[in-house]
Design a protein that fits this description.
The protein is built from 9 helices and 7 strands, in the order H-H-E-E-E-E-E-E-E-H-H-H-H-H-H-H. The protein is of the alpha/beta class.
Length: 356
């Protein structure tokens, strides 16, 4: 083999090595970030087991970025900085959850937040998102082991109690075997009677006339319910009217109740005065009915009645005779007032020398 062929082969090998190295750098190095646009997002975790730089960040199993830096933080615990490709958008109602496999490889999964009050807003570059830590499978198995031991102890205790219960049941059955047999017999008799009752009910329902009557009753049931509803409505209205009447009556009786003592006192006083008036009226009636009284004598004595009648007649005659006199006297007084000189009255009023 000549020297030129060897040099050619070495050159091809070197070129292939360089190409493979370049491809690896593009896939796993910082070159993808130079080729593809990315933005920075921070995650605040209480702890970050297994997370290192280049830990993948995934959404629904799809790689969207990688961890670039992991730092301790006194306030939150661990602050993780990740580079996310520009074509993937994260939102504030999402959280980063650190999970792992049985082999120990960690991954940050972007999952929806459990708080529905968080708004669905795009995360800006450099913004901090909340992070959660999924339970480690080995820790889960360890805690499950303690829980399994407790469960086994509970099962053993329960089995012991079941054995004690079974022993007690056996003793009860041995002690009350006759009573149990009697209960079983009564139960069988009851079941037989129930079977007969069901058969009778079936026979009764299978009767065509009974079916027709039952169907008619069911058809009439809505009308009966409507009538019952109307009756209940009327009763309700009547009760409401009664309530209003009672309220109005209470408005009348309440003032009467408040003025009750004064009304009773007034009624008592009126009753006393009425009793006095009735007593006086009784005395007056007795005076009227007394045989020695004027009214009784006027009623019973005809002479006194005649005298009274004559006196009244004379008074009537006198009034008739006085009427012309009074009329003449009225005319005389009128003439005297108008022409006093006719009666010589002017000379009495005016001074006169006596010489005509």
């Amino acid at each position: 083999m000549d020297e030129r062929t060897v040099q050619f082969r070495v050159g091809v090998m070197v070129l292939a090595t360089v190409l493979i190295l370049a491809i690896l750098l593009l896939l796993f190095g910082d070159l993808p970030s130079l080729v593809k646009g990315t933005y920075t997002v921070q995650f605040a975790f209480p702890q970050a087991p297994g997370v290192t730089p280049d830990t993948p960040v995934r959404v629904n199993g799809i790689l969207i970025g990688r961890v670039r830096e992991v730092e301790l933080d006194e306030k939150v615990g661990v602050m993780i900085t990740a580079k996310i490709e520009d074509k993937y958008v994260l939102y504030r109602d999402q959280v980063g959850r650190i999970g792992g496999s049985l082999l120990g490889d960690a991954v940050i999964e972007i999952v929806p937040a459990s708080d529905p009050r968080i708004q669905h807003v795009k995360v800006e570059p450099g913004e901090t998102m909340r992070g959660l830590v999924a339970k480690d499978p080995f820790q889960a198995i360890t805690s499950l082991e303690s829980n399994v031991s407790i469960a086994l102890e509970s099962i053993a205790k329960t089995s012991d109690e079941i054995g004690l219960l079974a022993g007690r049941v056996n003793r009860i059955i041995d002690t009350n075997e006759e009573q149990i047999q009697r209960i079983i017999s009564n139960t069988e008799a009851t079941i037989a009677q129930l079977r007969v009752a069901v058969a009778n009910a079936d026979e009764l329902i299978s009767d065509p006339i009974m079916k027709q009557n039952l169907k008619k009753t069911i058809n009439d049931l809505p009308g009966v319910l409507d009538s019952l509803s109307s009756t209940i409505t009327g009763v309700r209205q009547t009760m409401q009217s009664a309530d209003r009447n009672l309220a109005n009556l209470e408005g009348i009786t309440k003032p009467l109740g408040e003025r009750g003592p004064r009304l009773i006192e007034s009624v008592d006083r009126a009753a006393t005065q009425l009793d006095t008036v009735l007593t006086e009226l009784g005395g007056f009636t007795r005076q009227l009915t007394n045989s020695q009284g004027s009214l009784a004598r006027l009623v019973n004595d005809p002479t006194l009645y005649d005298n009274v009648s004559n006196t009244v007649s004379n008074i009537n005659d006198l009034s008739r005779e006085l009427k012309p006199i009074l009329r003449d006297l009225r005319a005389f007084s009128d003439k005297a007032a108008r022409h006093p000189e006719q009666f010589g009255v002017r000379g009495l009023i005016q001074s006169n020398s006596g010489i005509k």
